[in-house]
TrEMBL record:
Keyword line: Cell membrane, Membrane, Transmembrane, Transmembrane helix
Family: Belongs to the cytochrome c oxidase subunit 3 family.
Species per Swiss-Prot/TrEMBL record: Actinomadura meridiana
Transmembrane intervals: 71-88, 108-133, 154-173
Domain Heme-copper oxidase subunit III family profile: 1-174
Listed EC numbers: 7.1.1.9
UniProt key word Transmembrane: yes
Recorded superkingdom: Bacteria
Entry's localization field: Cell membrane
Keyword tRNA processing: no
EC primary class: translocase
Name of protein: cytochrome-c oxidase
Amino acid sequence: MFFTIRSVTIGQDGQSAWPGAPLNLPLSSVNTTILVLSSVTCQMGVFKAEAGKVGRDGGLLNFRRWGLREWYVLSFLMGAWFVAGQGFEYYNLVTKDGLTFSSSAYGSIFYLATGFHGLHVCGGLVAFLFILGRTYAAKRWTHEQATSAIVVSYYWHFVDIVWIGLFSAVYLLD
């Protein structure tokens, strides 16, 4: 969608009328790094889920003794930070630069692509909360609950991979 609309958007002078926007590359780069690292913390939680270790058995700062809960809480916080960072960028684009969904084809595509991705990240955050809730509700940790944690991690990793492609297309390509 991004490349198609860009290729057919022609101005009155016959040149490309693709307006672009002053995107915040440093903020988005930090956000991308945080989101990618959240896949690492999510996978650490999966390793703990597979081992049957739900909670930590050491001090809070001793991350080597963390269980699934601590790793998934950290993944949740990192994902929430990403969503907040995207919201901050949206706010600046709308208020300072006037880029809205209806202001241009670029605005429509930018908000559609990044917005749908953001909704999927929010879905992953809800899934983390469900898994965390199950760790407290279950009387004992079973293979089925570990499988649920693994499925959530697959979703989370996929959302991260999609973002890397979106970030590359929207923020890095001219």
